[in-house]
Specification:
Strand order of the largest sheet of chain B: 4-3-2-1-5
Chains: A alpha/beta (98), B alpha/beta (130), C alpha/beta (123)
Number of helices of chain B: 5
Number of helices of chain A: 3
Low-confidence stretches of chain A: none
Largest sheet of chain B: 5 strands, parallel
Low-confidence stretches of chain B: none
Structural class of chain A: alpha/beta
Shape of chain A: globular
Largest interface: A-B, 20 and 24 residues
Distance between the termini of chain A: 20 Å
Structural class of chain B: alpha/beta
Mean pLDDT of chain B: 97
Oligomer: heterotrimer
Order of helices and strands of chain B: EHEHEHHEHE
Mean pLDDT of chain A: 97
Radius of gyration of chain A: 12 Å
Strand content of chain A: 15-25%
Order of helices and strands of chain A: EHEEHEHE
Amino acid sequence: MILHTVNKSPYDQETLSHCLDVIRAPAVLLLIENGVYAALNIPTGFTQRLDPGIRVCALAADVDARGLRARLDPTIEVIDDKAFVDLTITCDKVQSWY
Amino acid sequence: MKLSLLIYGSPTGSQAPHTAYRYAAAALEKGHTIHRVFFYGDAVHTASSLTVTQQDETSIESLWQQLLRKHDIDPVVCIAAAVRRGLLDETEARRHEKSAFNLSSPFTLSGLGQLLEAINHSDRLITFGY
Amino acid sequence: MSDFTPKSVLIVIRSAPYGNQTARETLDIILTAAAFEQPLSLLFCEDGVFQLLPEQQSGLIPAKNLGATLPVLPMYDVDKIYADRSALQQRGLDDTELLLPVSVLSHNEMADLAANHQTILSF
């Protein structure tokens, strides 16, 4: 199982959509840094079209640093740095999208 | 588990050295081992001793220094990437006849072979890009 | 180094050449990995496929010509070289006109390729 990290805002770059082209369940998608802007709760959010076998998380420090906590897609799990470490262990490799 | 980090984003042009720092600190707190941190590309600037940080801001160089020292982690800065960007240790400054050097301790300059060694000898490699 | 087993590494090449140092520094990793006989595959996708264009004249910028180095990779036993079919198509490129022989892959095949390697580096 691959952990994919994405660090770019989907409003700025295509990084997330390139990741979504090749991500296959079971997998974990972790939004970090400006990638957390993809976690906003909007009608066209990407999670609605996603395979349910793909778990989507956002890194808490990046979410809260940007003031996004109250605006998040409720299907996205907010995780702390230690849970990030756990994901890199439970997944057998990491692909970094930046 | 034995983890290695590849940091590829600059400390000013990206968040990479900061995110990687938080990841490393959390991993160590959880009892994992950091085998190596490899600084490549613009991330080499993290190891500059000439960076000045304002008093109300946190120096990423000193955060990394403290963590590396406390846990005796091997911090390798890619020598080719570093010298191209004006980051030199004393040996490289002499070799290239430069008037000064600016690599912070405990960072060391070494080759890309150390990245491959880290891949082969760690359970995971995590990349922090720009 | 006693119990050392080299891992299979997939290098995902997503960056166009010359706009920054990324393509050049990726090539340095590839050449080092080849010298260390690391099991290696290359996947060119997104703007990374632009690295495969022949007739690069980077001396004009000036920059080191990456297009001159890529064709020698098969001589270093780096011969598992893949490219993203949709990235080529979107950019009007034909896989027969590239400076390296590549196997073109669909997105599903790219996902399988990533799954079949132990470590993924992406630049």
